[in-house]
Amino acid sequence: MKVRTRSFLLLLELVGFAVQVGWAQSPSEMWIPIKLKDGFLVIANGSVGSLGNLTFLIDTGTSRTLMDSRIIKQLELTGVADKLTAFDREVDAKRVTLPDLHLGGIHAESPQVIATDLSGVAQRFGIQTDAVIGMDILRLGQFDIDYNSRRIWFSGGEPMASLLPVESGNEPYLIVKARIDNTPITLMIDTGCDGIMLFANRVPNGLKRSYSASHTSTVFGEVPVTQIGSGKLSTGTTPAHTVRFHIVETGNNRMGFDGILGVRALHASRIRFDFEQMAVSWR
Predict the structure, then answer these.
(1) 6 occurs within a structural domain
(2) Looking at the structure, do residues 91 and 137 belong to the same domain, yes or no?
């Protein structure tokens, strides 16, 4: 049996990489259109240096921004060899400093990104993307993703009906407290994941049940998954509702949280990421 969970990029780290980015954000209210792939992957246009109309995939579950190697070649940039860790495997990559990067109201001056081959995105998910924009670029102030109007808003506003504070100590990830079948659990909110995935070595005893083996796909290949059925998810003031979740074998899991929470599992039509107040709200 093959589970159809479409997880994009989960738990990407770079060994020995410190982010050095200069930030600016437009003070005026603005928005840019987005496209949705499979109903949850968020795609928008942006620019890097002299290259405009690039395709960016917005992923709050990726710590470092990934730039396709062909874009780095077009910009005639060089980089420093490094390693990218995805689950329990290492992938060759390069650390590169861009002239700048624009995504709507976000402007990053001289950001360091990871140059790697993103052709796996097109092969596994049907998306020809030039970059995966991670938390090093996204965590400036605030932005909203509106899944109904298909826009990203870069402006302030009052929190929406459901609000959760983001747990400290797990930067740059967005970790929130939740409950599944009344069992406390900590989850990372990930726009690049469809549904809920729990780490095998952190599953609370209250959620351990019989399950059958399966797999899920990431950019770097298939990851072993074990399906566990369903449970009642409770987050903040949102009424509990039934969700399906899966267990992921992550190998050497050093993350300080129990799993991944896709936005669709929240039943959210619009979600706000506020990095000044360190909170996530949605409706």
Answers:
(1) no
(2) yes
Interatomic CA distance for residues 5 and 246, integer angstroms: 9
For 77, what's the count of Cα atoms within 13 Å in the CB-facing half-sphere?
Answer: 28
Give the span between the Cα atoms of 97 and 70, in whole angstroms.
15
CATH assignment of the domain containing 241: 2.40.70.10
The two most distant CA atoms of the chain are separated, in Å, by 54
Give domain status of residue 7, yes or no.
Answer: no
Do residues 199 and 278 share a domain? Answer: yes
Instruction: Note whether 208 and 81 are same-domain residues.
Output: no
Q: Is the pTM of this model over 0.90?
A: no
Q: Which domain holds residue 98?
A: 12-153
**Nearest of 34, 21, 75, 31 to residue 51 by alpha carbon:** 75
Q: How many CB atoms lie within 10 A of CB 48?
A: 25
DSSP line for 208-249: ----EEEEEEETTEEEEEEEEEEEEEEETTEEEEEEEEEEE-
CA distance 206 to 200: 13
**Residue 233 identity (one-letter amino acid):** L
DSSP result, 62-128: BSS-EEEHHHHHHTT---EEEEEEETTEEEEEEEEE-SEEEETTEEEES-EEEEE--HHHHHHHS--
Tens-binned pLDDT, residue by residue, of the chain (283 aa): 334 445 554 455 554 444 444 444 444 568 999 999 999 999 999 999 999 999 999 999 988 999 999 999 999 999 898 877 665 567 777 899 999 999 999 999 999 999 988 988 877 788 899 999 999 999 876 899 999 999 999 977 777 888 999 998 878 889 999 999 999 999 999 999 988 989 888 888 888 776 655 655 555 556 666 677 789 999 988 889 999 888 887 655 567 899 999 999 999 999 999 988 899 999 9
